[in-house]
Design goal:
The complex is a heterodimer. Chain A has helices spanning 41-44, 53-58, 65-80, 86-118, 129-135, 137-158, 178-205, 210-215, 259-262, 292-298, 305-320, 328-347, 399-402, 404-418, 426-439, 443-446, and strands at 2-6, 17-22, 28-34, 167-168, 171-172, 222-227, 239-243, 249-254, 263-267, 274-278, 288-289, 367-374, 377-385, 391-397, 455-460, 466-472. By secondary structure, chain A is of the alpha+beta class. A four-stranded mixed sheet of chain A has the order 8-7-6-11. A three-stranded antiparallel sheet of chain A has the order 1-2-3. Chain B has a single domain (3-151), classed as HybD-like (Rossmann fold), CATH 3.40.50. In chain B, strands 2-1-3-5-4-6 form a six-stranded mixed sheet. Chain B is globular and about 45 Å long. Chain B is built from four helices and six strands, in the order βαβαββαβαβ. The chains are: A alpha+beta, B alpha/beta. The interface between A and B is medium-sized, with 23 and 17 residues.
């Protein structure tokens, strides 16, 4: 049996590799997505004062620190057991949407657009942002400006682009000024024009990606995420909804603080990525997907006009595309539209500059859970503290982890369809990487373990046969 | 001539943060300077808007405390996919601006990149020279510049 290793998987956030096992006929027998890096914030945080957690947890990731900041602060809110001032909630929402914007812009324009707009089989030396600029200069210029806009909103509101600690248990640290509000409002129209241009360009090219739509992690699964009380798109709070492959709601209005009743955690022996599953269906049948595609499949509508118009077109295609993960890209663009429309709406609120943005209190509970929809899906922070407010236990379920089982199945599906071990071509392997890019995994965020880490050691002989194997599982 | 300083590095990895720290000081002096962890595509927009860009960076391969300045050119064939280096960033900026700015890098050899704050002794000793060299590039006409080495 031969083995192909793609190491590293490129144009993703974090470090991972893929192994493909080939049969004697050159066809793919098995494929695995391995995440080799390990972070372990769940252990690092034990013993820290709970009010330090948002700033500490923001350090988990350089791409989506705001989601960690928000989820962590919400867990802190639960420990304080106080009501957060409405102006602070508005500011948190804007900050979080700015991060959705910059993260989705990074995923679409920087990491995936070279494949989507130049083609999966384009010259790898040109299949990058600079090569894309030579073909689509205005789109690239707009995409870069879009990410810069999202990051600048974060910098102006929270003090810096990466790892700010402005969101705190009880609210936010400081109000914002009129200059910052005006900056937000002035930037929205140009940013919307860029996203709509990208959406049109992407849709125009979709006809060339029929095979990818059909085979990129296109299989029945559950979808999970937060929706608001009207069933609309929601990234900051809300209730959990789960739908089955037919779209039927199997969980509705579920309190996210009870997430452990819905979700159980498994581990894979060859990856540090957690593998959560839907508890009622067991492992691995309880496979589900989260993130932009899941959110758009879950909601009744987005709740803003441009995003809803785009959603209508999306749904027409989604219905005929089965359960295609390739459409994560389009879902990301629609969510960018939504984020911009919602930022404009929130920034125009009469009480945006209200100075009362923080409720002060000491800990009033020993356990707190904060949940938000991060760019890549549902993010859960769960803390326990002692009488002195020191953290005694942490559990994190990160968006990318929810998708672990789906990514693995997707890699196998793509590899089986596109890879021919007898006549290997670069474009085949790029597609194996590209199915991972569709999920936009953020591996730095998601490689944490609670308890003993899983481990597998395999001993191969000269012919590549496994002659011995040691396994340690945390289950 | 409009000049932008970009300091690269992680201030929580001791000497690695020397470029970012220098940029913070220059920004506090009122200069157009930005401290970042690493080259990012969105910096190309700012680079494209100036006539000169000066990168401030640590160099693990040089002797600790030794300061060097040199011109750098955009990458002829930038990789620009999984990671972006300074020449690749300049290549992107050159496309955005049609003609990229004059670009320099001021580096200092480093010793210690362990987790923590503060610089090793040789880097702390050379830091003043590193800053002076960076400041000097704001006022000196490019024609008089050559690669220079300072032993801090």
């Amino acid at each position: 049996m031969r083995r192909i290793e793609i190491d590293p998987v490129t144009r993703i956030e974090g470090h991972a590799r893929i192994t493909l096992q080939l049969g004697d006929d050159g066809r793919v027998r098995d494929a695995r997505f391995h995440v080799d890096q390990f972070r372990g914030f769940e252990k690092l945080a034990v013993g820290r004062p709970f009010h330090e957690m948002p700033g500490l947890m923001a350090r988990t990731c350089g791409i989506c620190p705001i989601s960690h900041l928000v989820a962590s602060a919400k867990a802190g809110d639960a420990l304080l057991a106080v009501a957060i001032p409405e102006p602070a909630i508005r500011l948190r929402r804007i900050l979080h949407l700015a991060q959705i914007l910059q993260s989705h812009a990074l995923s679409f324009f920087y990491l995936s657009a070279p494949d989507l707009l130049l083609g999966m089989d384009a010259d790898p030396a040109r299949r990058n942002l600079v090569g894309l600029y030579d073909e689509e200069p205005e789109l690239v210029r707009g995409g870069i400006a879009l990410r810069a806009f999202g990051q600048e909103i974060i910098a102006r509101m929270a003090g810096k682009r990466v790892h700010p600690a402005w969101v705190v248990p009880g609210g936010v640290a400081t109000p914002i000024d009129a200059e910052t509000r005006d900056f937000l409002l002035a930037g929205v129209p140009g940013a919307i024009a860029t996203v709509e241009q990208a959406l049109a360009s992407f849709r125009m090219r979709l006809v060339g990606f029929e095979a990818e739509i059909q085979h990129f992690a296109n299989f029945p699964s559950l979808f999970l995420g937060l929706v608001d009380t009207n069933g609309e798109l929601e990234h900051y709070e809300g209730r959990l909804r789960v739908i089955d492959p037919t779209g039927a709601r199997i969980v509705e209005g579920f309190d996210p603080a009870r997430y452990q009743e819905l979700i159980a955690e498994a581990d894979e022996p060859d990856s540090y990525l957690k593998a959560p599953y839907f508890r009622a269906f067991g492992f691995p049948d309880g496979i589900y997907r989260v993130g932009p595609l899941a959110r758009l499949r879950l909601v009744t509508r987005c709740g803003t006009p441009r995003a809803d118009a785009a959603l209508e077109i999306f749904r027409g295609r989604d219905a005929s595309a089965g359960q295609a993960s390739f459409l994560y890209h389009e879902a990301r663009l629609i969510e960018m539209l939504f984020a911009l429309e919602r930022i404009e709406e929130l920034a125009g609120h009469a009480e945006l500059l209200d100075p009362d943005v923080r409720a002060h209190a000491g800990p009033n509970r020993r356990e707190g859970i904060g949940v938000a929809e991060a760019p890549r899906g549902t993010l859960i922070h769960h803390y326990r503290i002692d009488a002195d407010g020191l953290v005694t236990a942490v559990n994190l379920i990160i968006a990318t982890g929810h998708n672990a089982l789906a990514m693995n199945r997707g890699v196998l599906q793509v590899a089986r369809h596109f890879v021919d071990g007898e006549r290997l071509q670069e474009g085949m392997l790029n597609r194996v990487e590209a199915v991972i890019r569709a999920f936009d995994p953020c591996l730095a965020c998601s490689t944490h373990a609670l308890g003993k880490m899983p481990l597998a050691i395999r001993l191969f002989d000269a012919q590549g046969r496994v002659v011995d194997e040691l396994r340690r599982s945390s289950r | 001539m409009t000049t932008l300083w970009i300091g690269l590095g992680n201030s929580l990895r001791r000497d690695d943060g020397v470029g970012a720290r220098a940029a913070e000081i220059l920004a506090a002096e009122g200069l157009r300077a930005r401290a970042v962890f690493q080259p990012l595509p969105e910096l190309a927009l700012e680079i494209a808007a100036v006539q000169r860009v000066v990168f401030l960076d640590a160099d693990l391969d040089d002797a600790p405390g030794v300061v060097r300045q040199r011109r750098i050119a955009p990458a002829a064939d930038p990789e620009g996919g999984h990671r972006l280096d300074v020449p690749g960033l300049l290549a992107l900026a050159a496309r955005l601006a049609r003609r990229g700015p004059e670009a320099w890098i001021v580096s200092i050899g480093i010793l210690d990149v362990d987790a923590g704050e503060g610089f090793s002794t040789p880097v702390a000793a050379g830091f003043g020279e590193f800053l002076d060299c960076a400041r000097h590039l704001a006022v000196t006409p490019s024609a008089s510049h050559a690669a220079r080495t300072h032993h801090g």
